[in-house]
Design goal:
There is one protein chain. The radius of gyration is 14 Å and the shape is globular. By secondary structure, it is of the alpha+beta class. The mean pLDDT is about 90. It is about 25% helix and about 45% strand. It has a six-stranded mixed beta sheet with strand order 2-1-6-5-4-3. The protein has one domain: Nuclear Transport Factor 2, Chain: A, CATH 3.10.450. It comes from Motilibacter deserti. This is DUF4440 domain-containing protein.
Length: about 130
């Protein structure tokens, strides 16, 4: 499979979004309910590696519990690609390594009035 050719006009968007990923693993972007609601669209949902669909409310509740435990979160991201899919709407893909666990991630982002909001997120385990 050939690698996507980066669009030079998307390089700034790519830099901004790369600094927000992995989504929900960046406590510096906020850890309160208000922060998380601001970062996610009202109709946001996520599909986990299991294939299960998680609502915005479930994801926020899970994150609030995680942040309250102050667990260490070791990860590494690589292979970022970004493409425009609509006005101020972008699809970001990347590889996430968490110890031995690897997953391919996709996040749909929208920028409104200079603020980024997550529309959709999915992670798929890499088994190869």
């Amino acid at each position: 499979m050939s690698e996507p050719v980066p669009d030079p006009e998307l390089q700034q968007v790519l830099r901004e979004l790369r600094d927000r990923e992995p989504v929900f693993h960046r406590p510096e972007l906020g850890t309160t309910r208000d922060d998380l609601e601001r970062q996610t669209a009202p109709d946001f949902f996520e599909v986990g590696a299991s294939g299960r669909r998680y609502s915005r409310g479930h994801v926020i509740a899970t994150l609030l519990a995680r942040y309250a435990r102050s667990e260490s979160d070791e990860w590494e991201t690589t292979d970022f690609h970004c493409r425009a899919v609509g006005p101020e709407t972008y699809l970001l893909t990347y590889l996430l390594r968490q110890g031995e666990r690897r997953s391919r991630r996709v996040t749909a982002w929208r920028r409104t009035d200079g603020q980024w909001q997550v529309l959709y997120h999915q992670g798929t385990l890499v088994t190869e």
